Amino acid sequence: MNETEQLNRLRASSLKVTPKRLEMYAYLSEEDRYISAKEVLEYMRDKHPTMSFDTVYRNLKSFAEEGLLEATELDGEKSFRVTCSAAHHHHHLICRSCGKTKLLDLCPMRFVEALDPEFEVVDHKFEIYGYCKECKQKGLI
Description:
The chain is an alpha+beta fold. It has helices at 3-12, 19-31, 37-45, 53-65, 109-115, 133-137, and strands spanning 35-36, 69-74, 77-82, 91-95, 101-104, 127-130. Helix content is 40%, strand content 19%. Strands 1-3-2 form a three-stranded antiparallel sheet.
């Protein structure tokens, strides 16, 4: 995602566009993987040494509430990535080591719905966790 697209996505939200928010969102856009608030803080502190963890986390949470980021939990810690741009319904394979994701064009809900046709599903989230080829080859697991 280029800078113009990042700026347009932020402007389309109800959040005020600030240089720090734009910088944080640009970092997440460039990484294209799940990133912890701690990693974002480390990145932001290079230019903003007084920035706090609470500020970073609050902004990430606001981005997620606006639909700009997706959140998941990796190793007991909430991690974030830019919302997938795929227009169709899908799910992800997620590497527990590096946070990279891979699109999965499959939804298991038809199997779940068949188990109890009287249960009304209103939402779902389906993620598969494991280790990517690169992390296995590097011995990071």
